[in-house]
Amino acid sequence: MPPLRRAPPPSRRSSPPPPPPVYKCKTCFQLEVVGPDNTPETTTWDFLGAKSCAEEGFYPIPPSSGPLPTCCERARMYLADTLALDADYGLDPDLDVDLTGFEELTCTKTSIRICGDVTAPHAGEALKAYLEQSLSLSTWTTNMVTALSAGFGNSGGTCPMAMIGSSARVVTVDPLSGEPDAACLPFDVDAQASCAQPSLAFLKEIRDVSPFPNDTCASAPGSTPFALERYMVVVEEDAEYHLACMAITPNTPKDAASACASADSLDKVAVLLWDDEDFGTASYLQEGVLLRQKDAEGGYVTKDLTVSTGPPGSNSFYLSGLGLTTADLASEPAVCFRYPADSDPIWLYYPVDPLGNLWTALYDASGKCCPTYYANRF
Q1: Are 332 and 250 in contact (CB under 8 A)?
Q2: Counting beta carbons within 10 angstroms of the beta carbon of residue 27, is it exposed (0 to 12), middle (13 to 18) or buried (19 or more)?
Q3: Which part of the chain is the Pherophorin domain (predicted)?
Q4: FRET label pair with 198: which of 2, 28, 141, 231, CA 20 to 30 Å apart?
Q5: Is residue 166 part of a domain?
Q6: What is the per-residue pLDDT across 5-34, written as a single tens digit (0 to 9) for each?
């Protein structure tokens, strides 16, 4: 009889490990703009209008007639479908974190919100910690902020004018309650760096130019009933020419008892522009500098202003013949620079300020009051 054979030992192959857990949740990325007191009520930023994100060369004129009539629509253009492309934000593909469905954008005056789905092996604070294990998290955060604030048109890589004195953050919020998101993907980062107020003192430091205004007069802003709107407006004069306009606006003088507070006329302004012949500013201004204002019927009329230059090297151009009184402020007067529609607007090359600000002094009849403001397209 053949010998008995032992049965083979049972297999000791281990079972495959269970798949890692998968969490699916919803969150909203929200960019919030707040003013100097850290509330939205004190900022001038407005996603529902076009002025805050106006930028050079952003046509048609006015923006409301084009495909991106508001800052909200501009933000939508920058953000559409982007948050679903994780790799574009530097997320390590080994982290198994997916962002999908971030397509619909909603706006208020001071915030934009875009919501979607997060799929990850963790959620809440655990997901935040999981992301922080990756060296790419800082890149992802930076790129996220850049994408959300890409609609901020700006000059020279600085903050746009509507952000001066304000700040912004990107946070995640619960889609239903609007409260800070703690359950899905906690997120809270600064969206803007310094938004410093432009100043002539700083300009003199970086440009080493003569003081402006080039006269002995009271130049502090707010001293007379006349002021300057910060935002230049581009007007289509006709098919061949555009007008870049600085609006003159009413102002309540800061010191009602001062002599400048009683100034009731404005006939001359000075603008800080390069006067070196190499810049060709004088030739540029020969296209025409106009006063534009409404007539009694509500239509716009213009008249030519006289252009003269200050002493060589002062970089001062004087525009006279405005003939405005405080009563004329109701006609919405503006100083406008004419230029061919196919050429560059004045703020690109001619201002001494590298950010394109047109520093402008508004002279009263005595010449002793010259409050100085800046204007720019964005």
Answers
A1: no
A2: buried
A3: 212-371
A4: 141
A5: yes
A6: 666 666 666 677 777 778 999 999 888 888
